[in-house]
Amino acid sequence: MAARGADVRAVTAAVFAAGVASFALLYAPQPVLPQIAGEFGLDAGSASLAVSVATGALAVAVLPIATLSEVVGRRPVIACSLAVSVLMGALIPLVPSFTVLLVMRAVQGAAIAGFPGVAAAFLAERLGARGVAGAVGAMVAGNTIGGMLGRLATGVSADWLGWRAAMACSAVLALACAVVAGAALVRLNRRVPADGPASEQDREVGVLRGLGAALASPVLLAQYSVALLGMGAFVALYNAASFRLTGDPFHLAPAVASMVFLAYAMGTVSSSLAGRLVGRFGRTGSLLGALAGTVLGAMMTLAGSLPVVIAGFVVLTAGFFAAHAVSSGWTASAARRGGRGQASGLYTLAYYVGSSVGGTVGSVVFARAGWGALIVMVTAWLGCAVLAVLAVRSRDEPRVPAPVGCGGSRRTDNSGAGPVAAHVVGPGGRSE
Questions:
Q1: Which of 69, 74, 111, 68 lies closest to 89 in space, CA to CA?
Q2: Residues 237-261: pLDDT tens digits?
Q3: Which of 86, 303, 355, 360 has the fewest CB atoms within 10 Å, counting from its CB?
Q4: What separation in angstroms does the CA of 189 have from each of 89, 192, 325?
């Protein structure tokens, strides 16, 4: 379906604003983990649960919520996701104990699952293959900008307001974005019929058979591995970043240390360029290069020089988001018709299991053995991701031209932050 310009603008505004709101809330506690640890008498590993519990709940909830959206529609799920997650964000600064904070973060993470678990399908269904490209770019930007702004809102304000008021600042930011997203969804609702259950043609394989196909493909399993291991390494490093920068040998103030999250801006740039890389080097070459960049950036953070450490975070952030964009696009392309939703859900599940488990394990390793041990561990994880990609390298598609478009490629499945079915994939993974 060719999307009208007004529809594209409404959907683009909705997914951009919803992405900012959702990811600002999801990672808001990360820069104030040292303050949370200080108030409740915790070590770095225990304090990191404030992030990991939310991402873990998101991982658990994403498949059930994605299935629910097949029944009630995508838009109501996104709207409820925003409402509940913002409400939790407003209440979290009032928590009396760390246990209550964890419970509320779990509820918030489960609510946030309604956006990343549904957004890709929402875009593909509302805009079709041609209209989806620009909207996917907006979703990538919203996700990365939201993650950056949420961290900055809490990190910068924590010095003079305390971590509780700093968390409230991120909730206010999310509320403003949720209002923008809600208004865009309402405008869309008035112009086009409400989105409903999938058609019979889309159900031809069936939920269980589609899930089986998504679990049986070696190519898809490799992408889930990249999501799991890459996101685990990425969050492990950023969970410990504030402790590293505020401790020996740098002793930065929390507000200054939080500036490291400006590196997230590179995520928007690198993910938008991923399509050009795939067009020139193929999926395997692009993904291996992005993972290598992530490893290089992680190793740079071992330096005793603050500028080199900051440059390392910039490099690893650019590498990770490029790898995520290529891998999620490969997932969409390789998934069979009738199993795309399940493949998207499994990729998202692996991504946030990596965030939750990897973030916690990384914080524990850092607390007990230091930054050097953490770098050794995440390098090993990323090395395993490289091996998974190499195992399916013969299934990479031939290079394709990279004309102007979202991410520089007409193959819109390579340009987004999440899997989007942009073209039909025939037997054996051939594009038709």
A1: 111
A2: 998 998 899 888 998 987 788 888 8
A3: 303
A4: 27, 6, 29
For residue 249, count CB atoms less than 10 angstroms from its CB and return exposed for 0-12, middle for 13-18, buried for 19 or more: exposed
Residues 6 or more apart whose Cβ sits within 8 Å of residue 33:
44, 47, 48, 50, 51, 239, 242, 243
C-alpha–C-alpha distance, residues 429 and 432, integer Å: 9
Task: Determine the average pLDDT of the residues in 308-319.
Answer: 95
Residue carrying the six token digits 């009630």: 72
Does residue 213 contact residue 336 with C-beta atoms inside 8 Å? yes
- Omega within 30 of 0 (cis) for the link into 64: no
What is the DSSP track for 122-134?
Answer: HHHHHHHHHHHHH
Cα–Cα distance measured from residue 233 to residue 28, given in angstroms and rounded to the nearest whole number: 19
DSSP 247: S
Q: What are 294's two structure tokens? A: 């992530």
Residue 90 CB coordination number (10 Å): 14
Contact 39, 25 (CB under 8 A): no
Helices 49-72 and 98-112 cross at an angle (nearest 10°) of 30
pLDDT digits (tens, 9 = 90+) for 372-389: 999 999 999 999 999 999
